[in-house]
Amino acid sequence: MMRRMRFMPFTLKFLRLWPLLLCLGSPSAFALIVNGLYEQEIVVQGQGDAERIRAYREGLSAVILKITGEERWLRNSAVERAVRDAQSYVQEVSYHTSSGPAEQRNFISVRFDRALVDNMLNTAGIPVWDQNRPTVMLWLAVQNPDGRRELLSADSDHPLLEIVREYSRLHGLPLLFPLLDLEDRRQLPIDVAWSLDDEAIRAASERYGADAILSGRVLESTGGDLVGLWQFLFREQVETFDSFEQNFKPYADAALERITARLSSHYGLIRLSAPLPVRLRVENVDSARDYVDVLQYIQSLAVVDNASTALLNGASLELDVTLIGNPFLFTEFIALGRDMQPVQPFDPGQEQTPALHYRWVR
User: Fold this and answer.
1) Boundaries of every domain in the chain
2) Quick one: average pLDDT of 265-283?
3) 16: pLDDT confidence band, cut at 50, 70 and 90?
4) For the segment 222-258, what is each residue's pLDDT rounded down to a tens digit?
5) What is the DSSP code (8-state) at residue 9?
6) Which end of the chain has fewer CB atoms within 10 angstroms, the N or the C?
7) Following DSSP, what letter does each residue of 75-86 receive, concatenated?
8) DSSP H helical ranges for the chain
């Protein structure tokens, strides 16, 4: 049976598309909440049933790509069945028209039911990537056919920028670009950036507070070939891979798909068969406001099923937390927020109920 849908006027603008993020050099960048993951806008030729069903299928495919991070999941049999029955996952729709200099275009805006989509993916054993996502600092050095090299900023006039903006929008990957002000140019001269010196790149990226760093260089040959090398810095790992293409889109997309798969697999949530209890101790909870903020923050994490107070002793708060994912993912989500700092590292080998110890620093 088709689920009942509530149609709403487009003036409510429930569809929130995020632009490519421009970093202003603030250490508050860190992880970001990516809105609109379960919403999609699709071009349509009309409002007939067949065209609407086609749009639903296209929209659900786009949503699944955003919340899993990998195109390979679109070929999963459970996902293919869901896409064929996409109308069953629709929550709200609206139509609107935009007029451009050349033609008028019609759009349908679709919001899909998050609980239904997540349940379908969880049942299929497919990780779901939460809206709290790591930011990726992007350093791009290009050498033109005439031999001139330049580092790209968000304001640079280069075809690579539009390609990565579109990728960011379609995949929900928060990207940051350098300001390329005097400090950036002093810390990372173009020749150093071209060499992909990981220590220099980490140092230059520190002011932006990103969770991961992707740096790349590409040489445009006089024959039109692109020869490139990429380096991905995540946690303490350094991954280097090369690329050879004939145009910029496959060159950029291949690298971005690779790191998106890495991040989505790291942060993707697969629900446990039974909730797992952990004990969380938080120091530096100095006020009633801190207490409320800590509890709300923990309960907001996608991996948390429930959190309740076990002990409040002065500035020390202990919580009984039940998780729907593994404790390591819980610590990784906390690390994204930067609101809590570990007092002692998490030991994944603990056999009994894991005990985690943090300090509240918001």
Assistant:
1) 37-123, 132-267, 276-360
2) 94
3) very low
4) 888 999 999 999 999 999 999 898 899 999 999 999 9
5) -
6) N
7) GSHHHHHHHHTG
8) 49-68, 77-84, 114-123, 159-171, 182-187, 190-194, 198-205, 248-267, 288-300, 327-337
132-267 placed in CATH 3.40.50: yes
Q: Could you tell me the two tokens for 228?
A: 């490139």
Give the chain's length: 362
Distance CA 318, CA 175 (A): 36
> What does the DSSP 8-state code read for residue 21?
P
C-alpha dist (Å) from residue 206 to 26, 42, 55, 107, 236: 10, 38, 42, 41, 14
- What's the CA gap between 154 and 161, in Å, rounded? 7
pTM score:
0.85
- DSSP characters for 149-196? EEE--TT---HHHHHHHHHHHHHT--EE-----HHHHHHS-HHHHHTT
**Per-residue tokens: 17:** 């598309």
- CATH number belonging to domain 276-360: 3.30.70
